[in-house]
Amino acid sequence: MEQTELHKDQIKYIIECLIFASDTPLTVEKIKAVLEDKSKKEIKELVEELVQEYQNLDRGIFIREVANGFQFCTKPEYANLIQKMRKTKPYILTQPTLETLAIIAYRQPVTKAEIELVRGVDCGGVLRALPEKKLIAIQGKKEVMGRPFLYATTTRFLEVFGLENLSSLPSMEEIKQLKDSDISLFEQEPQ
Length: 191
What we know:
The chain is built from nine helices and four strands. With 191 residues, the protein is an alpha+beta fold.
């Protein structure tokens, strides 16, 4: 029994190293490609144990599921210090960019004309900038006259916004509730 537990811990250490060494979120499938003799279920269970162990440690880093994979992340409260060390600028997205990105995220794959119909304004400039940031990509062409490009979000989009997958996006009902609660805060009379 002792040998089995040691073996299990060794496998967990290997998974921990793989997640640490990966530049992008590491999927269970990629871990399985390295640990060929382990099932996806076993790997997923071990990863979940690692996630829980890091949560219990109360440290500056943790493992989270993002973009259908797992990666080490720093706690958000230390982001400004890490940016200072790296001397990088955070993503700055304008209101039109965020609106366009939201339309793409919720309606993908979507054409430029469909986005403009929702926004009511030209979005050509935004659609040129978002692929440069690797937040959206062209996913093909729509089978209609003129064959316009179809846009969809990328794995990088999930990483930047800290989403496990697209189903992690808030529902329209959740957004409406948030919007309504924000409005009610402004409608309250000052004390």
